[in-house]
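Would you mind giving me a polypeptide sequence along with per-residue structure tokens?
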Amino acid sequence: MGKVGECRLESLGPSSDDELYALLDSLHIIDGRSSLEKPHHEVSLRFRLVGLIGAESETAFIYDEAAKQLLIKEVIRFDRTRFRQWCETERWFSPKTVIPRRGVALATFSPRPTPAHMRDADDENALSLVDRFEGRHLHEGVAWTDLKAPVVDFLKARLA
């Protein structure tokens, strides 16, 4: 195992196990990507959620070039201040005003005093899944995969 670790260090470039772990901790490998459209959409969505421009409809995805530049400059981490400065330099802040966030709730237990994290959700922004749970556990015959479609549909409707 020691020789395998040494090979990894040599091929990836970090000078210590700690740097290797920090590098690997920032990687997320997902199998089955059929094209770059979905990751581009996901990056753009996350950027828009924090007030940056989304660019998945552009012919050249601007964030790909930015990632290349970071690799060339060997920048692997940002603190909040440096990231903000970089976004300002790249003119990535969205000129639009951000829509205020609204509370959304997924209820999985019978009504009782409302928990603090659900108090901000209006009735139209709450999805009740109580009929599929018994206490903290799913009813027999209900699978987590059965909950995916209603939850995804509910959340998509709230984004519209």
